[in-house]
Design brief:
The protein is of the alpha+beta class. It is built from 27 helices and 10 strands. The strands form 3 sheets. It has a 4-stranded antiparallel sheet with strand order 2-5-1-6, with helices on both faces. A 4-stranded antiparallel sheet has the order 8-9-7-10, sandwiched between helices. InterPro entries: MMPL_dom (IPR004869), Mycobact_MmpL (IPR050545), SSD (IPR000731).
Length: 771
């Protein structure tokens, strides 16, 4: 048969491409770089890139927090800290170590510079005096010593953009040394450490989710079809589509990150839609006794167009994310949308080829006493019709309640927001906020006005006024700037006494200090704060992670303060840094979400207009899918789930997926109305014939997304939870609300003058309602 030869060619061609793609897909790398979440094309990002090119990154550091058995001023404990500090200085990729035992107070005399250690670990008799001096010295407590005197912190400056492998090696060495020194109560924080842990988690979760999705689908497919091919064929089609999509990612130089790690699991779930509609329709025809080839032709004819439309709407939902300025979200939308289209291609090429080559399936027949899907759906349809007005009232009530609760949603994001509060990494994060200054970086660019330098006394006083506000009002727990450098130098010139940790009172006194500063201008630690010409510099610090919503208010108040109290003829400032850029991610969330939703709705409207030439039908198609979206917004508002990067994409994705079943329903309805003039009979027939595929397909989708609830990442958890709930609400809307809307408001062109199709119980309706 020519059909079979062609099918063999199709399968051979697909297998060859899949083998080639599988090799390239296996070469994909995992990546989690916080910088990739900065909004691309943003002027503030361009400014920060130039800024850190001059002063360096604000997050190339690792913090070690170590708890003492008692007081941190115990000689034995300090000796261990000093040993650890010396060990850290010798490690690769560590540029600088600042430790409690390496801190020194420089004293400048006429005949030289003396550096007096703040601590004398090996001279116990001095430790009492040392501790008193430390708690009197600005900048040491909350930075290297906790307020309660029971914990110390060591700051490690690392090489820029430390990669995972060297970061892992470094931390293995550090943990081994701390264990050898019996420093058991330790905590670690830092960009390189968090990124490395995130990559490890992504690898683990990818394997877990893939396995869970496969097991789930095998069980559901077996229960649905009770045949080996009903399990094997869908898995082969979707697995091949995933391999093709991952290979495309590799060809375009993409990596698997916190967003694209969801792609395989999402495709196992979402990609199954077309396959399930095809197989369900095929099985139905076989059950009716239709010959195999004719059953395949009918299936492809009736399901093909609807599947094409649903693939378009689903992929558009993902493609709309490409407009996001956040790289990982844009890539996720691009490659997942591409995967949806690849699944459609394979579902209508590879799947029919395998169906043709396989023998006609022997279906599992229910017992005579059992109830078929048609019986169940027919009974359900009667109940829907009987309670049609109640369904409309309940739906309207849900809309009103949802709108009220949506207003409670806030846009807010935090550092490490994708980790739950009880995660060990997050617990270390909280540790540094509780014991020390915090880990949220603060960056302000300082620029002296033309003809001025940052070393001018007037400019220094302007900067000091800003520092006072940041310390007393803004909440910055630790900071350093040209002012702190000058104050420290002033103290050094005056015997190291803390009373002199202040700005000089006269220009003459300042000139003595600035002449020394100019000699030190080329030192790396000073270059990280002030440019060699003294024209620009930075004010940097640490603070608790207050969240983007509060930070936005705080920054607005800070800018207002500086506009009122800072003289631009002396000093010009601008906020910058990684924290500011991460906060800005939330500013465009609503816009991007509405753009994606609007695009999806437009596509659905065009589809409805193309099928029915009716705006009324377009509205009927959209309503059952907007209500679940409103309800999921209500869930977020009710339970205080913030709108952030990871949750903002849920609405667009959920709408694009949920609309699939509606399109299958109305497409089937359109085909039926071509042969059946009675709207009631057309809706009833469509309900009974499309309902099975809708319920099974949605059930698979819900279960598949709920596997994401086992994720340790909050973003992944909420993606699974909220999209799963949306689909549950969507099933209810498809089964209960959509038929009622069609019965009440759909008007065939030839019946437009006759009012609504369904007013009261007609004789036909009465017969349908008879048990």
């Amino acid at each position: 048969m020519p059909y079979k030869k062609f099918c063999f060619l199709v399968i051979a061609f697909v297998l060859a491409i899949t083998g080639f793609n599988a090799y390239h897909a296996s070469q994909l790398q995992f990546d989690y770089d916080f910088d990739h979440f900065f909004p691309e094309g943003d002027p503030d990002l361009a400014y920060y890139n130039e800024y850190r090119g001059q002063f360096g990154n604000d997050n190339d550091y690792i913090l070690l927090g170590i708890d003492a058995p008692g007081s941190v001023f115990e000689p034995t404990f300090l000796a261990r800290i000093d040993t650890l500090s010396q060990f850290l200085k010798k490690q690769r990729h560590i540029v600088e170590v600042v430790s409690p035992t390496t801190l020194k107070n420089p004293v400048i005399e006429s005949f030289g510079v003396f550096e007096i250690p703040y601590l004398h670990p090996y001279e116990p008799e001095k430790l009492k005096t040392d501790s008193a001096l430390i708690f009197q010295t600005p900048g040491l407590v909350n930075s290297f010593f906790s307020q309660d005197g029971k914990s110390v912190s060591i700051a490690l400056k690392t090489t820029p953009n430390l990669l995972k492998l060297p970061a892992d090696t470094l931390m293995q060495n550090v943990h081994a040394e701390m264990q050898r020194l019996k420093l058991t109560e330790t905590h670690v924080a830092g960009k390189a450490v968090a990124e490395s842990i995130f990559v490890d988690r992504m690898q683990e979760e990818l394997a877990i989710f893939m396995s869970a999705a496969i097991v789930l689908l095998v069980v559901v497919l077996w229960l649905t079809f009770r045949t080996w091919w009903g399990v094997a064929l869908p898995l082969i089609v979707v697995l091949f589509a995933i391999i093709w999509a991952l290979a495309i990612m590799k060809f375009f130089g993409a990596s698997i990150d916190l967003m694209t790690v969801l792609l395989p699991t999402m495709m196992f779930v979402v990609g199954m839609s077309d396959v399930m509609h095809i197989l369900t329709r095929y099985v139905t025809e076989i059950d009716f006794g239709t010959p195999k080839m004719q059953a395949i032709k009918i299936t492809l004819k009736e399901s093909g167009f609807a599947s094409l439309l649903t693939s378009i709407t689903t992929s558009v939902g993902f493609f709309s994310l490409v407009t996001s300025p956040i790289g990982p979200i844009s890539n996720f939308g691009l490659y997942t949308g591409t995967s949806v289209l690849l699944t459609f291609v394979l579902a209508y090429s590879l799947l029919p080829a395998m169906m043709i080559l396989l023998d006609k399936p022997k279906m599992h027949r229910p017992s005579k006493s059992g109830r078929s899907w048609f019986d169940i759906l027919g009974n359900l349809f009667r109940k829907v019709v009987l309670r049609r007005r109640l369904i409309l009232y309940v739906s309207a009530g849900f809309v009103l309640i949802s709108v009220a609760l949506i207003s409670r949603i806030t846009i807010n994001s935090t550092f490490l927001e994708d980790l739950s509060d009880d995660d060990p990494v997050k617990q270390d994060f909280f540790y540094f906020e509780e014991k020390f200054a915090g880990v949220r970086p603060f960056e302000m660019h300082l620029e002296a006005a033309p003809g001025k330098t940052l070393y001018d006394l007037e400019t220094l006083r302007e900067t000091e006024e800003i520092e006072t506000y940041l310390s007393q009002t803004y909440g910055l727990n630790f900071m350093t700037s040209p002012v702190t450098v000058v104050k420290a130098l002033n103290r050094s010139f005056n015997g190291g006494g803390n009373a002199y940790f202040k700005l000089p009172e006269t220009e003459k006194q300042l000139q003595r200090l600035t002449s020394k500063l100019k000699l030190l201008a080329k030192k790396d630690d000073l270059k990280a704060l002030i440019a060699e010409d003294g024209k620009s510099g930075r004010l940097t610090g640490k603070m608790p992670d207050v969240g983007s919503a509060k930070a936005k208010i705080m920054n607005a108040e800070l800018n207002a303060f500086m506009a009122k109290n800072t003289d631009p003829e002396l000093l010009q400032t601008r906020l910058t840094g990684t924290a500011l850029l991460m906060d800005k991610n939330g500013e465009d969330l609503t816009t991007n979400m509405m753009l994606g939703m609007g695009t999806d709705i437009l596509i659905v409207v065009l589809i409805a207009l193309g099928l029915f030439r009716s705006f009324r039908m377009a509205i009927i198609t959209i309503i059952p899918n907007l209500i679940p979206i409103l309800m999921i917004g209500a869930v977020m508002g009710l339970f205080g789930i913030n709108m952030k990067v990871s949750t903002s994409i849920i609405f667009t994705i959920a709408f694009g997926i949920a609309i699939d079943d509606t399109i299958h329903f109305v497409s089937k309805f359109k085909l039926v109305t071509l042969k059946e003039p009675s709207v009631f009979k057309a809706v009833r027939y469509t309900f009974k014939h499309a309902g099975k595929a809708i319920i099974i397909n949605s059930g698979i989708l819900v279960c598949g997304f709920f596997t994401l609830l086992f994720s340790s990442f909050d973003g992944t958890f909420y993606t699974g939870l909220l999209i799963g709930l949306t689909l549950i609400f969507g099933i209810a809307a498809e089964i209960f609300l959509l038929p009622v809307l069609l019965l009440y408001f759909y008007k065939p062109a030839k019946q437009k003058k006759n009012g609504m199709v369904l007013k009261e119980k007609t004789p036909e309706l009465q017969r349908e309602l008879v048990p």
